[in-house]
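hi support,

uploading two proteins for the ticket. first:
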Amino acid sequence: MADFHQNGNIATLHNLRTQSTDELSYELETFAQSRKITLILPCLYSELEGPAMPNILAELSKVTYLHRIIIGLDRADAEQYRKARAFFSDLPQNHIVIWNDSPRMQALGKRLEDLALAPMEPGKGKNVWSCLGYLMACADSAVMAIHDCDIVTYNRDLLARLVYPVAHPAFPYQVAKGYYPRVGDGKLNGRVTRLLVSPLLIALKRVIGDRDYIDYLRSFRYPLSGEFAMRTGILPDLRIPSDWGLEIGILSEAWRNLAPQSVCQVEIADVYDHKHQDLSADDASAGLSRMSTDICKAIFRKLASDGTVWFSDSSTRFSIEQWKDDFVQDTRSGRLLSLAPDGTVTTVLDGLAFANGVALSADESFVVVAETRARTLVRRWLTGDRAGTRDLLAGDLPGYPDNIARGSDGLIWVSIASPVDPMVER
């Protein structure tokens, strides 16, 4: 057991050694009678020639609860594809090798590209995307799992512990994310998690303020692990990156589609080692350089789509039909509110003089609300040292502001409905 603590809002299932692999497998066999389980293996042909795959194959041959194994094969020519089929022929389970570089798959990719439906970049995500399409077309599995094909310490216990939380009919989990200690041979591994993802999430929290999505990602022990299990009912709504951002992309989709209590992380190994990528400091299109770029893109894309909706309420005392009454009486009962992606509505500012129009700054460091009655623009800071405070972006306007917007130049544009009325100002 790597550790023993719960953090964040994601359930952590530790390996407490209360069940053996054989006991877990027996239960999974029982579940599989009514909830078929499929395994997806995204692999490169070169991995078939490495030290990991022969052992993975030997361990999978002992697994009795799998209904099907789908192998997505990348970077293989026709002769290598034939060798791959022979390599996997020893599997006792129903299995298929999808040759992603085949003429048929290339033609299908061209058709999808013409329809603007094809994955944008080659990579592990595109491989998994193709395999998921085949799985959904089969329409006969309730649970699916994915794991990498370069795990040199692989044993069948890893797979059993990975799929158990989502295969168990009494558990609420739709997605299970595997994790394990990233140590080996007397050194720390998991360089991208330690040196990029974890510091990046901390920095984002400091720069843009509290975001539930950032806290959610920080809840995972090892967010970049390639091991997932899911219930297949969520697959049609799954939007995943086609590149190395796959792991973050799947977690982001779980965040978008599911409640936190439907997601868990499960300890699947005490020892884990796999092929380590080159740093590729001089080649941004390969190795850890490309992986880091793809991961950052996946995080930033999600943050961009996870925006909070800001809106104003002019009066809590009068209806819209009676807006003149509120304006003349200057009730100052207007509000600035936010609507979070989960539907939560929060009053951010109150006591405003006929709030009427909202705009978010280009860098999202502050939000501005127009006070029509007071002829001012109130700024609420969202990030930085002033986060949570308010001040005036503009005061004593020459007329009454009626809606505001951020222009393509990044400036806050204000429409003036009418000049100052001396009768109102008395």
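and the second one:
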Amino acid sequence: MASKIILDNSTTGQITINNVAVTTASVDSAFSLSNSNANNLYNLAANTLNTSFVNLKSGLSSPNWAYVNSTSTKRSQFMSAYRAMTEQVRTQISYQGYFTTAAGSYPGTSAYYGGVLLQDGRVFMVPFNATFARIYNPTTDSNTTPSGSYAMAGGWWGGVLMRDGRVYMCPYNSTTARIYDPATDTLTTPNGTFPGGAAHVGGVLLPDGRVYISPAGGTNGTVGRIYDPTSNTLTTTAALFPSTTSSNCGCCLTLDGRVLHAPFNSTSLYVYDPVANSTISFTAGGTGAFRGAVLLPDGRNYVIPSSSTTGRIVDIASIVISSIPNANPSGLTYAHIGGVVTADGRVFCTNQNAPSPSIFDPITLTTIYLSSLISVTANSFSSSVLLKDGRVFMVPQNSTSAKIYTPRTVTVPDSIVLSPFLNKF
């Protein structure tokens, strides 16, 4: 059984193993694995890990997670810490992990599309067809129904954690957004009107603290929208996106603070620059090709295959897109729907029609299904959320229960797990 590793959020970046603090000087010999077949020592220089977190936290406003993408320097320091953490965790003995069923019941029937990790570690689930939200508490293994009513079929898809801890819900069919405040358990409707009619899917927190809402294509989704929580105003991007129905599905930040869109029915992958208010595009996509994208620890982005049999890795720095074979081993249409990067740097891909979730390894460029661990009915889950303890929470879509995947026990620092780079649809 692997040791429990805690990467402390303190300014010292202290590392704790099995509740025992380890100094930098002794960390190489102290990091060990207890396993019936092996007893391996960690060889990664702990100075790299400690220094990375100290540098990242230095000069950040509070809460620190909300500002890791605020400047090019902080983005670089974030990537150093992110990479050091995943390299450290990856040195553990590799195993596939296991699944458990979380406590609580859910309504099913496309109830929730997307989840957001709150500052206190709970998971807020965004209502799609459900008339109420749900919040899962991984510490107590319990789910609760927060205040607020959502009377809209297909109302919202995806959410964004804002700097003040509130959750902004991105309108799909709804003509207005919603904001949930977990501190006061209140639901409000911010200013701004949306076109509705499947206009937007997902969003991200921009480097300046505004919320970017990703266009989904069709006649109503050819432009992105940006919500400013300071002025409570909504603006429209100058950049135009394809009018193809369901052209995009989800987005994520790039290493330099731009927004990469996952092409679903679009034949081009678009990257939006919030500073220049413009886009660039690359040839990539097709019919139902991709859903969701993530930022890898090496600074590249992985675009998750839906119906495509190949994945895509986008190197935004050199403007190169690489095709990854066998990323959808089942060859099924709509195999995956988004994913998250786990603490060891691998990508957990939420299954839609695939027989189980899959794991993509960006180092070996291989994808494996976890069908030996779990069998999942199609359309059971809509997305996944990385928890603070390194587990992965699967957000129920048609399923009446939630699942949790445990790859290993690692407490992930707030500056990483809550960051706009990871905490998004």
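thanks. also noticed: Residues 72-90 form the longest helix (19 residues).
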